[in-house]
Amino acid sequence: MQIDARGPRFGAAITMVVLLLVIYFDSALLLAIQTLVWAIGAFAGPHKSPYGFIFKTLVEPRLKSVGELENVKPPQFAQLVGFLFGVVGLIGVVIGSSTVFLIATAFALAAAFLNAVFNFCLGCEMYLLLVRARLIR
Amino acid sequence: MNHWLLVASVLVLSSAFGLFLHFTRGKLTKKYSNEISFDQLKIGQELGKKATILQFKTEYCSICPGVKRQINDLIKSDNGISFYEIDAVERIELAKKLHVKSSPTVLFFNEAGLEEGRIIGAPKKDQLRNTLEKITTIKTEKTNAN
């Protein structure tokens, strides 16, 4: 399946703002909501996540140019990586470790920032390194 | 921990990393080894008469199809240049042997099947054109020398 390549980048920009708020307010609830968004993106596809829906209904119709299409799998994998960061952060909350919570959120923030600003998909890049290290596949 | 300090650190480090990638990716880098020739890779494809381009991709590489299109557009009128695409995960041992750590990685082989250099990340069209011109010039010089 092909989707507008600008959609995941738009989603990364919203994610970045949400994660900044998570850190600023030390909000486990906000991280839980963001983790749910990642879960939908990872398991149903980024175009079905709330940010994908906002892009499709509010942003894309207002864009004058037609965006390049990309396979849904790379951004879906990136959502899975984000979901894992979110789960680790929430485990930090459950075990009462604010350090785990903040570090996991900070990593997710860095990944979202790189995607939104530099169009660099950290999750996609990690994939080959993880396969090489025999950690996946 | 001061939250603003954490946010500032993340943004500064990410910006530095992003800028590093911006200025280093997509450019021709040194060849890693001339010890492995194209024939020794045993990918079941023939060496191009003038040059051969080999792109390593992965299933989760969002920019790989675009790079493939770019290369195909550039070489479509030149029968002497062969272009092949390999899934780095399917051929992980080959990827390791060639020091491929990122996708896309585009390797350029000369007429003798030796690597002349590689581009990691999305190459700019000028960079691709210049690289191919450089490789075919080497071929001409070698031919003239003979």
Please tell me about this protein's structure.
The complex is a heterodimer of chains A (137) and B (146). The two termini of chain A are 22 Å apart. Chain A is globular, with a radius of gyration of 15 Å. Chain A is built from six helices and two strands, in the order E-H-H-H-E-H-H-H. With 137 residues, chain A is mostly helical. The model of chain A has no long low-confidence stretch (mean pLDDT 92). In chain A, helix 1 packs across helix 3 (50-59). Chain A has one domain (2-132). A two-stranded antiparallel sheet of chain A has the order 1-2. Chain B has a single domain, classed as Glutaredoxin. The model of chain B is unreliable at 142-146 (pLDDT under 50). Chains A and B meet through helix 1, helix 4, helix 5 and helix 6 of A and helix 1 and helix 3 of B.
What spatial form of chain A do the alpha-carbon principal axes imply? globular
Note the main sheet of chain A: 2 strands, antiparallel
Low-confidence stretches of chain B: 142-146
CATH topology of chain B: Glutaredoxin
